[in-house]
Amino acid sequence: MAKPRILVTRKLTDPVEARLAADYDATFNPSDRPMPAAALAAAMRDHDALVPTVSDRIAAGMLQVEGRRVRMIANVGVGFSNIDIEAARDAGIAVSNTPDVLTDATADTAMLLILSATRRAFAAEKMLRAGRWGGFSIVDGLGTSIQGKVLGIIGMGRIGRATARRAAAGFGMEIVYYNRSPVGELGFEARRLESIEAVMAAADVVSVHVPGGGAAPLVTAAHIACMKRSAYLINTARGDSVDQDALIEALARGRIAGAGLDVFAEEPEVPKALREMETVTLLPHIGSATQEVRTAMGHVAADNLDAFFAGKELPCRVV
Q1: What pTM, to 2 d.p., does this model score?
Q2: 5 flagged as catalytic
Q3: In the annotation, is 285 catalytic?
Q4: Would residue 253 show up in a list of annotated catalytic residues for this protein?
Q5: Which of 24, 101, 116, 297 is most exposed, with the fewest beta carbons within 10 Å of its own?
Q6: CATH number for the domain whose boundaries are 5-101+291-309
């Protein structure tokens, strides 16, 4: 019996690629560059499944291509805003993701950005690397301590909880949060507020942990306007979860103190204005970028493929 034919759109770690090569008629992308939309559309006709990442835009037209053969999309990532989910559902295409395995790594990255932004680490390192450091000073380059400060979490899901837990237990931060639905026992002290606006106004640091892919950002210009002038905004969720233009304006005008960003609205494009700001720490979407986590993500995607082609329930079904 012929093996199912799959297309892996980006380079995965060696153990995952070895597993997929053994179990499937797999086509890989050794260049690790995003595939053109035309190539992805063509692949829909001659593969049984796609294994894309969050960098691959799977639009409705691609899912509705004439002669489509693909019946399964095993997305490598917890998010799936890169896929038109309604179009996939209408077409009868199964979609899965890879949750849980990247929770701790992404929460670690959120804390990295919180510390870097509040301690002005980028500006300090830039000064040192440029040979402009004149030696120790009591008053130069002062940042802000986070002990006893308020961390606002927008989206108290797995990653939001893990970030809040680290901030509370490790750094003595007070936690407030907004979540659209009630949450269960957190295991640490936290106050749920009634709106995003309330969290933005109360927090010294706001950390965003909500999905993107909506018609408009969930964190809007009006929300950012509620923040304290001394506050910082951290985003490790999706670039389009936050109104990026409004954030840039707020930073440029000094309406907030700084930001830490791992994601951007039009990746891999990062606005020049952000790249030039010393009050902003920027990372190239590395929230889950450890060898262990990226390998685990790939194996979860493979588990979903295995289940689909065996006629079993998907471990991480989205559609």
Answers
A1: 0.94
A2: no
A3: yes
A4: no
A5: 101
A6: 3.40.50.720
